[in-house]
């Protein structure tokens, strides 16, 4: 047999397990980055190829672009692309060093007047963008963009001057939330799960949990979804479940839900795997290419969430 140059992989899982079905889907449909991530998480693949694949999206300014986040097309760096890159680096244990120093310099260059990140930087103007994503000339600071980035940097013990004001912004935004929507709450959790002041984070998370339950922002019974309103501007059926908030059992959001509620939500997640082996995209889709590119991302994250909660995935 001819040499392929590829490293040997462990034996494939049984053909009907969740992982095996997802693996076929990923090899058929995913970008190289998601293929490398899948191999790293579920087949013992190395971290170096993931970093190499991610480098294709990196720009000279230290940020990331080139549709790394599928709803934003074009080459320019954006906070959401860069947050995505940080999640990848964190997932493979490479969120450190000069690469992250360059990212922090980029974050500094695109920050708002109060030191936080806009959801969309105006440099996106002129490039294809999902129609439901506003591009404005002077965008406000957004917890949605800032919270996950600050949380990841703290989680990896990164210290940079940019973090001081950005952390202060996140505290103020999280502690003033009264009415919100699921994605903003998830961003708040991403910050609180790694914020250095643990007693303050626990108190803020406890209050947010009461907000989530009071406003029915988590669908606690997947068999009665009509009882849970979809947030304004979300796609029909774009419900959020306990596992969306508590991605791991260690998350502060895990305390918001009973064991039965979490079990039902994880059962629902596992049941969402489709015939082709992938998981569906629940948010609004605007063109074939972004929708197709998002499904492998969702599939890898679904499997990681199930595994983190101790569910057998094959």
TrEMBL record:
It comes from Streptomyces coeruleorubidus. This is Prenyltransferase.
């Amino acid at each position: 047999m001819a040499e392929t140059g590829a490293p040997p992989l462990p034996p494939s899982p049984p053909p009907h397990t969740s992982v095996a079905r997802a693996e076929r889907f990923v090899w058929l449909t995913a970008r190289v980055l998601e293929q490398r991530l899948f191999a790293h998480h579920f087949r013992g693949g190395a971290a170096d190829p993931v970093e190499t694949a991610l480098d294709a999206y990196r720009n000279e300014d230290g940020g990331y672009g080139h549709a790394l986040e599928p709803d934003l097309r074009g080459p320019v760096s954006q906070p959401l692309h860069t947050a995505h890159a940080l999640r990848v680096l964190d997932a493979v244990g490479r969120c450190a060093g000069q690469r992250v120093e360059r990212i922090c310099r980029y974050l500094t260059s695109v920050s708002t007047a109060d030191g936080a990140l806009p959801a969309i930087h105006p440099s996106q103007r002129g490039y294809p963008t999902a129609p439901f994503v506003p591009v404005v000339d002077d965008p406000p600071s957004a917890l949605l963009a800032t919270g996950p980035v600050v949380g990841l940097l703290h989680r990896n013990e990164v210290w940079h001057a940019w973090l001081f004001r950005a952390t202060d912004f996140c505290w103020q935004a999280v502690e003033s939330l009264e009415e919100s929507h699921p994605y903003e709450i998830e961003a708040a959790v991403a910050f609180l799960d790694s914020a250095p002041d643990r007693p303050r984070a626990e108190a803020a998370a406890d209050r947010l949990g009461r907000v989530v339950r009071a406003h029915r922002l988590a669908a606690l019974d997947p068999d009665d979804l009509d009882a849970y309103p979809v947030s304004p501007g979300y796609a029909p059926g774009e419900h959020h479940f306990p596992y969306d908030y508590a991605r791991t059992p260690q998350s502060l959001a895990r305390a918001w839900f009973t064991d039965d509620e979490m079990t039902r939500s994880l059962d629902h997640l596992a049941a969402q795997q489709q015939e082709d082996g992938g998981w569906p995209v629940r948010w609004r889709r605007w063109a074939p290419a972004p929708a197709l590119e998002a499904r492998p991302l969702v599939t890898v994250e679904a499997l990681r969430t199930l595994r983190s909660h101790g569910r057998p995935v094959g």
